Amino acid sequence: MKISLTHYWYCFRGILTREYLRFIQQRTRFFSALVRPLLWLVVFAAGFRAALGIAIIEPYETYITYEVYIAPGLCCMILLFNGMQSSLSMVYDREMGSMRVLLMSPLPRWFLLVCKLISIALVSLLQVYAFLIIALLVAVEPPLWGYLSVLPALLLVAVMLGAIGLFISSWIKQLENFAGVMNFVIFPMFFLSSALYPLWKMQEASEWIYWICIANPFTYAVELVRHALYLKFDSVAFSVTLATTLVFSVLAITGFNPQRAAAGTGKKPN
Amino acid sequence: MSIEVRQLSFRYGKKAALKDVDFSLESGQFCALLGPNGAGKSTLFALLTRLYAMQNGSIVLNDLDLQKHPTQVMQQLGVVFQQSTLDLDLSVQQNLAYHASLHGLCGTQARLRIAEELQRMDMSNRAHDKVRALNGGHRRRVEIARALLHQPSVLLLDEPTTGLDPKARKALNHYVRQLCADTQLTVLWATHLIDEILPEDRVLLIHQGQLLSSGTGHDLCELSNKQHLADAFEYLTQQTDTAA
Q: Per-residue pLDDT tens for B125-163?
């Protein structure tokens, strides 16, 4: 039987449906993923509100509260945790069985992995929107159209982070558990970016931290989302995010090796 | 020939897992892949299913080389893995629909195929149950139904009776044999349990990565001058251990 374009479409739809069904089955995971950014928004931001003066910076047109400033960074934090967690489990332990099923499809492996990354990303967006709705309670009120214009930005960022996660799981053997990824990837990526403080604040504090933030792709992801949420387009942030997504997708897909994953679980085939 | 494996070798680093494995299976044949744990059965399956990249040798399915025509070969292959790969929190129907979509089946066509296979497995009334609610034997049946959804010509089962009680093991073995007889499906059934093999079955005996014999169970007994298959198996594998 010849493979047609509809095969590809059905396959993508099937993978997306499965991710969605698993998502709605795992409500506790959904809520616990929301608790983390909400704590930052409500507790951390409340404490810092007085300590940190935010000048009028792009894309905001007035003085803003600290909650408003960190909300886009926290949206990206949700995507960062989800992307890393999902990619890690694609390669190791729990998901390996379902990866085997996925790889039994006759369609090319690169296509299956791209579908998986996009599906995970789309499902993660539901969590981001749930967070943004709750954030209304602490007066994080972007323009109504911002909720729509931020969608493609969030999707691109989610795919980028999923691809980085898959790349890390495939290439860096030492980081095969989530604690390692959290300490050496998630936290440095998040803290050394513009998620919590504007870059000029970072520069005031330390020149070299500022330069690390400038080199961190997560900074551009956060700025892309921040601008899109307020109906602005940051072309530099978009270009860097897109380029990072493409580079890491290619590296992740070429480096994906189910054989190493099987060995990583300690269940080396007999 | 349905499957032709030629000079297949595979190494994990310096350790050889398969050494020049050579065999062929005819269409509609039930063949047991027999070997103790660590013999190389799962490695052979991982190569047959394209999960591992081939290092040496060739695999041909219905005249199509796996390396040259992976898409066409995978369309003809149904696989039941050793460990369950069903989503426990999804229903039987949802699990099967997912697999159908991976093979390009959707909508009415997928629903029809799912209904057909579930009926054949006598599982139609469990379609909307969560997999978690099924017992081990029924889960295996669902996995076989899933592997057959896209109507493959070859079915690979990697120790499918793992974790099943003796009654369920026997029933599953009987069921797959019946399927093989009814549909001309070629079946490769990996196992380390002698009681799943009949003397007249074709048996590929694998040990320490080498294919020791590829005749029938009777041939194995003759080769080792033993009356029972279990004794023949023990004798032949021990001989290799001594030689090594």
A: 999 999 999 988 899 889 999 999 999 999 999 988 887
Q: How do the domains of chain A map onto residue ranges?
A: 5-264
| B188, B190, B195, B199 alpha-carbon torsion, rounded to 10° | 40
Nearest CA in chain A to B143: A101
Q: Tell me the nearest-neighbour CA distance from A27 into chain B, angstroms.
A: 12
Under an 8 A CB cutoff, do A259 and B81 touch?
A: no
Which residue's entry shows tokens 């199509």? B64
- Determine the residue of chain A that is closest to B53 in CA distance: A259
- Residues contacting B87, CB < 8 A, separation 6+: A18, A21, A22, A98, B94, B95, B98, B131
Q: How far is CA B209 from CA A16, A188, B7, B36, B160, in A?
A: 39, 46, 12, 11, 21
Contact B101 A17 (CB under 8 A): yes
Q: Is the ipTM of this complex over 0.90?
A: no
Instruction: Name which of A15, A105, A257 to mutate to probe chain B: the one with the most chain B Cβ atoms within 10 A of its Cβ.
Output: A105
B201 token code pair: 């079955």
Tokens (6 digits) for B48: 């047959």
Whether the CB-CB separation of B26 and B186 falls below 8 Å is answered with yes
Q: Are B212 and B20 in contact (CB under 8 A)?
A: no
Q: Is the dihedral of CA A63, A65, A68, A69 positive or negative?
A: positive
Angle between helices A96-103 and A109-135 (to 10 degrees): 130
User: Are residues A97 and B103, on separate chains, in Cβ contact within 8 Å?
Assistant: no
- A66-91 vs A146-171: helix axis angle to the nearest 10? 40
pLDDT tens digits, one per residue of A45-104:
877 766 566 667 777 877 788 888 899 999 999 999 988 888 887 776 555 677 888 889
When CB atoms are compared, the residue of B70, B84, B98 closest to A18 is: B98
| Contact yes or no for A18 and B90 at CB 8 A | yes
Sequence ranges of the domains in chain B: 3-76+152-243, 86-151
CA atoms within 13 A on the CB side of A39: 8
Q: Where is B7: in which H helix or E strand?
A: strand B3-12
Nearest chain A residue to B88 by CA: give it: A22
CA distance A254 to chain B (A): 13
Tokens of A203: 């520069």
Q: Which residues contact A262 (CB under 8 A, 6 or more apart)?
A: A96, A268, A269, B46, B51
Residue type, position B182, single letter: D
Q: What is the CA radius of gyration of chain B?
A: 18
Domain over B3-76+152-243 is classified CATH 3.40.50.300: yes
By CA distance, what is A116's nearest residue in B? B102
